Amino acid sequence: MRIAVLGTGMVGRTLAAGLHGIGNEVVIGTRDPSATLSREGTDGFGTWAAAHPDVAVATFAEATDGADLVVNALNGEVSAAVIGGAGIAAGTVLLDVSNPLDSASGFPPNLFVSNTDSLAERLQRAFPDLRVVKGLHTMTAHLMTGPQALAGGDFSTFICGDDPAAKQLVTGILTQLGHTDVIDLGDLAGARGTEATMLLWLRLYQVLGTADFTFKVVR
Amino acid sequence: MRIAVLGTGMVGRTLAAGLHGIGNEVVIGTRDPSATLSREGTDGFGTWAAAHPDVAVATFAEATDGADLVVNALNGEVSAAVIGGAGIAAGTVLLDVSNPLDSASGFPPNLFVSNTDSLAERLQRAFPDLRVVKGLHTMTAHLMTGPQALAGGDFSTFICGDDPAAKQLVTGILTQLGHTDVIDLGDLAGARGTEATMLLWLRLYQVLGTADFTFKVVR
User: Fold this and answer.
1) Does B149 touch chain A (CB under 8 A)?
2) Whether A208 contacts chain B with CB within 8 A
3) Pairwise CB contact (< 8 Å): B219 & A150
4) For A76, which of A100, A179, B32, B171 could close a Cys bridge (C-beta 3.0–4.6 Å)?
5) What average pLDDT does the structure give for chain A?
6) Model-level pTM?
7) Mind listing the pLDDT tens digit for each residue in A169-190?
8) Facing residue for B207 by CB, picked from A184, A206, A214
9) What CA–CA distance (Å, rounded) separates B13 from B19?
10) How many CB pairs under 8 A join A and B?
11) Are the beta carbons of A12 and A55 closer than 8 angstroms?
């Protein structure tokens, strides 16, 4: 499968490497590839890209051209603008892993959409030709692609979306990555619930002093 | 300890019986005790009260008079009005187990306060002389008092509040009830996170077809 990952931060990098690791052709999309690749230093994208030569880097439009799956690993606040600018083909599955964090609200951040709406639903309304699936955003990056690293993967991973076939495609990928308890929350309005867990996640991050945790639905 | 439970619904009844069961003197508060006790039938409060003669029933004001702990098991929408009318003594610990469900929004309900504020914080601001602790509201009633009934109690129970001694009192009770993973989320703003999990809880209730589940923070 050809997968485009939008976003060059920790989440985008981790997902790109992980999705390549299970046999996909992965391209990371960024606004200006040469500028992005010129960022050196320990955390610089250029340094990371040099260590991951099998992951291509291209513009947002080039990366998404011909992709079977586009992963939104962008900051929630810029997601709609970037996705709109990428010109993604109608029918493409968009896995939205972003969170609607309001960067103007300090730490811990509030959500810029919540309760009666969600970022995932906003994206679906803005791009009705895409098939949006929300998922993976309730855990830190390395658990998205390596769930076995925490309690042997004994936790829950939520997905929701309006298109059953799109959810099936995403579920297949999650299973390949090692997620053993994928819970389908139904239509995309389920994202109101999972996005709102960020408010609890951020508190737990503060009191536990680590990002190495996530939620299990005990039942 | 003398405990007043406000509310005669399933949550109030279950908490009253459970808190009596671990050795407390429990009084259920209601607007009009004789009217409440006259409700017969399978689910009627009178039927329940006859089966639980050790739990007293009194007006809100009588029930809270002299109480070491008041438990708010009321509907979120009426909580502030009832607590205000009960005339609870300054310094009393109020364990708020209610949820800010907006009954006008259909099913699943939205929250009438969320994200940048919480019902628990509203109650604390309205009654600054009380010591509000939020807790137990992320699970169905019988798990509040009998956590061992689900996965041997292997799940998380959240508390938060601005008064450390009040949280210590509540934690002691939760431990007596069998809660083994009580996570202190810090000050009362932590309730924004736990109250928002209702949005996820209600979705899970729909797709799992049972209320017998809750969350574990896997770490």
Assistant:
1) no
2) yes
3) yes
4) A100
5) 97
6) 0.97
7) 999 999 999 999 999 999 999 9
8) A184
9) 10
10) 116
11) no
Return the residue matching tokens 């949006």.
A132
C-alpha to C-alpha distances, B53 to B12, B56, B73, nearest whole angstrom = 15, 7, 20
Residues of chain A neighbouring B217 (CB-CB closer than 8 A): 204, 208, 213-215
Rounded CA separation B159/B186 (Å): 8
Residue ranges of E strands in A41-187: 56-59, 69-72, 93-96, 131-135, 157-161, 182-184
CB contact under 8 A, B213 and A219: yes
Of A111, A208, A217, the CB nearest to B213: A217
Alpha helices in B3-154 (DSSP H): 10-21, 33-37, 45-51, 60-64, 76-86, 119-126, 141-145
Confidence tier at B80 by pLDDT (50, 70, 90):
very high
ipTM for the predicted complex: 0.97
**Which A residues 184-203 touch B at CB under 8 Å?**
184-186, 190, 192-194, 196-197, 199-203
Give CA–CA dist A169/A24, Å, rounded: 13
Mean pLDDT on A166-171: 98
User: What are the structure tokens assigned to A144, written together?
Assistant: 């998205």
- pLDDT at res. A196: 98
Residues of A in contact with B181 (CB under 8 A): none
Give, as one character, the DSSP assignment of residue B45: H
Question: Which residues lie closer than 8 Å to B56 by C-beta, 6 or more apart?
Answer: B26, B27, B28, B63
Contact A154 B218 (CB under 8 A): yes
So what's the pLDDT on residue A146? 98
Residue of B nearest to A112 (CA): B115
B104 close contact with A: CB closer than 8 A: no
What would the DSSP string read from start to end of A159-203? EEES-HHHHHHHHHHHHHHT---EEE--SGGGHHHHHHHHHHHHH
Amino acid, single-letter form, for residue B31 = R
Q: Could you tell me if A152 lies within 8 Å of chain B, comparing CB atoms?
A: no
Q: Are A20 and A26 in contact (CB under 8 A)?
A: yes
Angle at B79 between CA B76 and CA B83, to 5 degrees: 165
Give the amino acid at A161: G
The pLDDT mean for chain B works out to 97
Strand B131-135 to A69-72 pairing: unpaired
